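## tool: complex_structure
## caller: assistant
## args:
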Amino acid sequence: MAKHPQQKIDQHYLQLIIFSLGVLLWFTPVPEGLRPEAWQLLSIFIVTILSVIIKALSLFTSSILALSVAVLTGLLTPEQAYSGFSEDFILLILVALLIARGVIKSGLGKRIAFIIIKKIGKSSLGLSYSIILADIFIAPAFPSNTARSGVLYPIINALAHDNDSRVADGTRKKLGSFLMMSSMAGLTLSSTLWLTAMVANPAGAAMAKKFGIEITFASWALAASLPVIILFLLIPWLICKVYPPEVKQTPEAPIIAQDVLLHMGKFHKNEWIMSITFILIVFLWSMSEYWGINKTAVALLGVGILMMTNIFTLDDMKQEGGALETLIWFAILFTLSAYLNKFGFMEWAGTHISDNLIGFSWPIVYVGLIIGYVLMHYFFVSQTAHMLALFGIFLETGINAGVPGELMALMLLFATNFSAIIAPQGSSANVIFAGSGYMEADEIYKIGGIITAVNTFIFLTLGTSWILLIM
Amino acid sequence: MAKHPQQKIDQHYLQLIIFSLGVLLWFTPVPEGLRPEAWQLLSIFIVTILSVIIKALSLFTSSILALSVAVLTGLLTPEQAYSGFSEDFILLILVALLIARGVIKSGLGKRIAFIIIKKIGKSSLGLSYSIILADIFIAPAFPSNTARSGVLYPIINALAHDNDSRVADGTRKKLGSFLMMSSMAGLTLSSTLWLTAMVANPAGAAMAKKFGIEITFASWALAASLPVIILFLLIPWLICKVYPPEVKQTPEAPIIAQDVLLHMGKFHKNEWIMSITFILIVFLWSMSEYWGINKTAVALLGVGILMMTNIFTLDDMKQEGGALETLIWFAILFTLSAYLNKFGFMEWAGTHISDNLIGFSWPIVYVGLIIGYVLMHYFFVSQTAHMLALFGIFLETGINAGVPGELMALMLLFATNFSAIIAPQGSSANVIFAGSGYMEADEIYKIGGIITAVNTFIFLTLGTSWILLIM
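## result:
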């Protein structure tokens, strides 16, 4: 895709500006209490993210340049720098992308997509509500939102694909972009609703116990229920306004779908193999936390089966450069964020936010802490890392200022989930969608930012009143 | 590419046989002195490699299944299993593959290819000699054969590409397959010739010093010179016999090339950018050992520049699924081999080979040790790992049996290099060629096996006499 020359020049100006900013930040005197390496890595991280938001660079280009600079300046050792590439859950996303391709290639995706369209395909908004609802229903039995995104994605991808909304031919915005964005937003809600819907949730509940705060599956679900229900109703409608699908109403779609399904005839052999493999994978994923099975190994086994049965072939693999792109940028951003944390920046910033709130009345401290906690998610590439780094400090500050402990704890844990869409790399559950090509990175920053703001607003107002009422 | 049904059934039979063999091996009583986990991992490793050689599975499929089984059976922890993905030199290969694509896309590859064809393009054999000679000349200043393969590959790839020998359209055997195989064979020779042409060479020389054996740059080069010169003359001719290019003579090629070059006109902007970037990368690579620069970070910087200048784009990246495939199988085989070593198999096998040779006269011990050392390379996915694991044991056994120390040490270090082509994963320098698609994995096993046998034979006969003469 050739770019307009003017646009190219503009982009080079933007690159120059953002690199100058980076150099400036790097050589700015280090704030007190911060290690120089934390400050330098922060400079790199800010430039990386900003250059994506202002479209000076793609997520891929900014990430590889960032890692290169971090290594060549000696800020990170090679071992540290490349450690993200062997992270279990990052490889899980990579392999899940391959499985999703198998779902389409086998014809199973097409069939499922047309069955869904036949039943509820009259409007794009209806489709999006149905997907989120399905996610919310399976979530309590699925303690990994990454795996859940790996289950939902192939179906959504097929839905978009078979509604003639594709990345390759420039029709991504017809339906696919909208559905992907909605599902990503839906995952923040399903993870917020259930104690068992995200790995960091029970870990956070256990940490709260040390502060004498008891959080059970039922008390969590009750506290989250009202704000999540309101947001469930609100968010797809909102996305439909701010990031609309080009096709909103498709009254004839169910009739066409019925026709296509008739022509497809009975389940083909490849669809059977794909169905059984997919059910096997999903079953083992949902059991993985209880049986101690590694989800990535299960996914690899699945791809192995698809390869042996020629559903997914080496020729298909050659087309999967997009999966490689996703692996590279996500592994790099994960590493940068992890070392920002290890170098002490997260704790420093958390303490700073806390310190600045001392002396105010508890409602102000409470709101300040939650907003600070949400904004800090820009620096995190893992919800669990975010929770582990900041939950303790923020909870303690809140309790000391007089915020009711249960309210503070619950709201911080909810925020760990509902802020996940603030950036493409904000959750491993986002990444498979962000890697699909249906949404551009700067779009996720913008729309994800709006959704996070609305999530935060509803939770701070309605959610807080509700929790205080039932507490 | 649809397969003949009969062929498919045959392949499934082969898969069944090889999996049964794996199960059988796994449950065979563990040989004395070997830890059960070493034996089980060995079963997996043997099945993985055999299934590729007999074409029951592709290298990719067999690797992912192997890793999946290793993790699901609890033989490797997830951390151990995925560790290969963050190995510095493995990522270097991945990024080098992207740079190679930039060389072609910029038009620079085409120009270099046609300049070479114009000068020496009358025969495929002539081309192959020239490439190996170029490699041998740059090798002493290039202590990483991986980086050297990253320098040669883009040019060879362009040479094949612009001689209408491509992977995608089934013309790989016209010229490309032959050139890639020759270059891989050439790399074993260039690495054998110079003390400074491969990272494990000086490390091995340092280890030899502990046995009182002094090896200098000059004594190494002198000892290696005669057998390497003979093999340099012999190997390309041999490959031309056993793995012939479909087009051998192209008398009109230089004329066509001159014509094309005339039409190409002056260096274009993209060619300038690519040249400067490539020279920068190669310069920093060649300095990396002295200046302590990380080669992978340099390569990432190079890709970053190519991205910013739109020589390599995100659309190109989408086509790079082959690079992902290479990353996956190589990282997995590397990990399996590393843990085969950590679990003690390599030491056990090395000691076994040594013990069985005790009591024989020194020439028999010497030949036995060298052949054993070469064959053991089937289990190694890194020349350095091979040297580190077995050099000490084998050298000691040889010296104790009366083999002249210098002969034993030099020959083992030479063998570390000349056996590298025994398998696609035998050296990180192979992998970029093996990942090109120009050669199938089973072809590399077969032709690489022949080349290794000839290398070993010449070194054991002529090479040994020569070293004894000059010692």
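## assistant note: Chain A has a mean pLDDT of 93. Chain A touches chain B through 54 residues (CB under 8 Å). Handing back to user.
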